[in-house]
Amino acid sequence: MPHANPARIAGIGYILLSAACFAVMPVFGMRLYAEGLRPTDLLCMRFGFAAALLWAIVFRQGLALPRGRALWVLIAMGGIGYTGQALCYFSALRLAPAAVVALLLYLYPAFVTVLAWLVLKEHIGRRKLIALLLALAGCALTVGYASGAQPLGLVIASGAALIYAVYIIAGRLVPRGVPALVQAAIVCTAAAVTTTLLTLPEGPRAPETLIGWSAALALAFVGTVVAVSAFLAGLARLGASSAATLSTVEPVLTALAGAALLGQPLGLGTIVGGALILVAALLITRE
After folding, report:
1. pTM across the whole model
2. pLDDT digit string (tens) for 92-141?
3. pLDDT tens digits for 200-255?
4. CA-to-CA distance for 79 and 93, rounded, in angstroms?
5. What is the Cα–Cα distance from 260 to 193, expressed in whole angstroms?
6. Could you tell me if residue 37 is inside a domain?
7. Is the C or the N end of the chain the one with fewer CB within 10 Å?
8. Which pairs from 131-136 meet CB under 8 Å and 24+ separation?
9. Cβ(17)–Cβ(226) under 8 Å?
10. CA atoms within 13 A on the CB side of 81
11. φ/ψ of residue 204, rounded to 5
């Protein structure tokens, strides 16, 4: 490839690495569930470990911290938005296959489009309208033919997509000058505080085996720090549209990981419905 752009090739590699790291999160989560942990325990450790690692990077690089409104928006995004989305996602994994949960999460671009139209008065063009219809059709197929999924799991997974869409809309209130790693550190810290508080009524639980602790650390390091950092690195090299488009391989990788590592089969309805959802996401991100 004599005319290949090294920066672009590196960017593609970073985005694929990020997608792969996000895709294996259900594997670590299911291991922790086998140890008797609840979603709140799992997320408490995930966000706590990730926040510590992110702050170490932020202070090492000497990045400036936000103040005032930007700081409070980020705290709310982490303590309410990201916490709610993550709780729904990992709770849904207990009630539905990883592939179904990951595909329903990718309804969020359609939800973002609708919310941007309702809240920010953004125009919905023909391409976005087609994408919304495809997303709805894909959701209907995925839900209607989801093998091994409980109805509550499908509802919770869709709720994760809706909460994530609200999170993204709220993120537009953060000034562009705030470094992405600083945003991630504040969001993870706020989420860690919230999930820790949620564990207090019944008392926090921790893994009882070395494998369990390894899964908890991997969830934080691989599924959060590496995944987020790799996505940001790819974003800087490819731009927002290309990065978002390429990241739609994530639910595909999640489905493959679920089938290979968790023994979760893929039904025809899930495959066809998921394909429609991914096409819709591609149309919206290309827009």
Report:
1. 0.80
2. 999 988 888 888 887 887 787 788 788 777 777 777 778 778 777 877 77
3. 988 889 898 999 999 999 999 998 888 888 887 887 787 665 666 677 777 778 87
4. 21
5. 34
6. yes
7. N
8. 131/279, 131/280, 131/281, 131/283, 131/284, 131/287, 132/280, 134/276, 134/277, 134/279, 134/280, 134/283, 135/107, 135/109, 135/110, 135/276, 135/277, 135/280, 135/281, 136/110
9. yes
10. 21
11. -70, 150
Domain carrying residue 96? 6-286
What total number of domains does the chain contain?
Answer: 1
Amino acid at 244: A
Using the 8-state DSSP alphabet, how is residue 225 labeled?
A: I
Residue 204, C-beta contacts closer than 8 angstroms, at least 6 positions apart: 41, 44, 196
User: Is 1 domain-assigned?
Assistant: no
* Residue 148: CA count within 13 A, CB half-sphere: 17
Is 205 among the domain residues?
yes
Distance CA 90, CA 86 (A): 6
Tokens 């590592």 -> residue: 261
Report how far apart, in Å, the C-alpha atoms of 190 and of each of 29, 75, 83, 179, 184 are: 21, 5, 9, 17, 10
